[in-house]
Amino acid sequence: MDLLLVLLLAASVVLIAAHxxxxxxxxxxxxxxxxxxxxxxxxHWLLPSNPMRGLYRKPPLYLxxxxxxxxxxxxxxxxxxxxxTIAAFLAAxxxxxxxxxxxxxxxAGLLAAALWITIVHMAKLSYLAMTDMxxxxxxxxxxxxxxxxxxxxxxxxxxxxxxxxxxATMILGALTKGWGLVNPVLVGGTIALAAALGPGxxxxxxxxxxxxxxxxxxxxxxxxxxxxxRRLHLGWGLLALAAVLVxxxxxxxxxxxxxxxxxxxxxxxxxxxxxxxxPPRPTSVxxxxxxxxxxxxxxxxxxxxxxxxxxxxxxxxxxxxxLSLCWILAVVVPFSIAHGFRPDYLLPCYxxxxxxxxxxxxxxxxxxxxxxFRLSMVRHLFAAAPVIAGSxxxxxxxxxxxxxxxxxxxxxxxxxxxxxxxxxxAALPAAGIVILLLAVxxxxxxxxxxxxxxxxxxxxxxxxxxxxxxxxxxxxxDGEKMIAFARAVRPVVRDDQxxxxxxxxxxxxxxLGRFGVQITSSPDLAKELNASDIRWLIISDRGLVExxxxxxxxxxxxxxxxxxxHYAFDPQPELLGSVRVRSDNPILLQDFGRLYLIExxxxxxxxxxxxxxxxxxxxxxEMNDDDA
Length: 628
Hints:
Elements: H1 2-18, H2 29-40, E1 49-50, E2 54-55, H3 61-66, H4 68-73, H5 78-81, H6 83-104, H7 106-117, H8 122-125, H9 132-150, H10 159-176, H11 183-196, H12 210-231, H13 234-256, H14 258-273, H15 287-294, H16 298-308, H17 322-337, H18 350-365, H19 373-402, H20 419-444, H21 448-470, H22 472-476, H23 478-493, E3 498-501, H24 508-512, E4 517-519, H25 525-530, E5 536-540, H26 541-547, E6 550-552, E7 558-562, E8 565-571, E9 577-582, E10 595-600, H27 614-624
Parallel strand pairs: 3-4, 3-5
Antiparallel strand pairs: 1-2, 5-10, 6-8, 7-8, 9-10
Helix pairs in contact: 1-6, 1-7, 1-21, 6-7, 6-9, 6-18, 7-18, 9-10, 9-11, 10-13, 11-12, 11-17, 13-14, 16-18, 16-19, 17-18, 19-20, 19-21, 20-21
């Protein structure tokens, strides 16, 4: 029954994201989905590439898992693109449940899984066509298996199964992200810290001399690492990992050549050094602070765990926090050193945060409430989680409905939303008030578990508001415009070949299931069209302006802001042919404007000098390039 509840809660989070505005054009997903599409078109399974960006920059496991579905079914939609992420999200939730159950008992295991599922960042990460969730599930599986071999030990006859599971998940993680360099650091760091720390250090206090203490410490740590390596079958496991990765890397390097070396340079050297052309941008906010923010509400309960346990017992193997803290440090510290940090990188340690929080709730719920200031302080901290979540359920919908009547709106909200969304927003304040009242009552009555579950119940509503109202995709609805345009284009184009120009991030070809002919140079647009027998062209206002099929007009309907210059144009798609499909509303992303399906009329004649500021557009692209 508990496992069913975990799966239902996880499915509800996925449904909230899936029924929200499409985000395919955001978060660099177009690159991975484009590579997936190239495989379904008969591309290279070993060396996937995206016609718009070159080689795929990650190992190919995500694409190998995702590509068979559209290839067999012919379905090309957001849900199909994200199937590996959805499956990994459900599997990770189950693993968190079993890990919490093993560590702290069934009730804590269920709460740990619920806290992990409803971390506010999951509104994005649970439905993202990228490798993050699949990689985090592999990390979680590796640590789960290592825990049964080293710390919460299984029976002797089952050890070989857990060892096999450990190295299987390590291989899958290496095939998902990092080419075998990232997940050994995260998993190995967790195991190394957890194996080294723990009981057995007290006799060192009796030793005299700093040198003697240092030698004993090194000897003890090395013995513990050696014992852990033996139980993990480190030698055989590394051999199996190398047997999978080395041939794949060699074959990929031979097939990819200079392009693959450039991928390694971008993915590893620039992230380690921060040098080179267009290196990853460092963050100004410490990762530990971002972990506390993005892991809400689990982070509130995890912070309470740190207060409940004295500092000297944080890393005691007899204590409840030792393994979770080692896990968090092994993720946060390496990514703090690397350049180009993103909050998504913290996903592998969210499970540790949820496990700490679940233990703290379980511990405080069984404590005697009277006469202990520290316990009372933690109780107020726990009460803050459902109070904040409930307040958001009240305040955000109210601000949304009031925004049209305010001279200076507090929230940037979409001009229109679906009727069902408006009804849901109208109901959420009442739910928020109920959660607030119940949270105050539970806090005063020292019902700690109820506080945690109220926070869990409130977070799907917060995710709904974030996804359907507050996100950039909800405000622009660019993804929905792209889907509607692709739906209208499909019956017109059918199986004919088509060309595309200047719609790099407009995901229309992805929904059509084929890229078409890529035209990248504006002066050659008319030349390439006239030299081919291509009947159909998909182009944007931006493309029309850059190619010269637009009349510069200060009062034109299409405006472009490029650094310090402002331009206005009147697009003229009729210079290229007959417009068969036109998007109803402009796409705001990178100033695409409207999209057009044009039946090309030959010969195509365009002005010799394009109307648009091409140099400015190139600079705009460089500023907005996303190498994630």
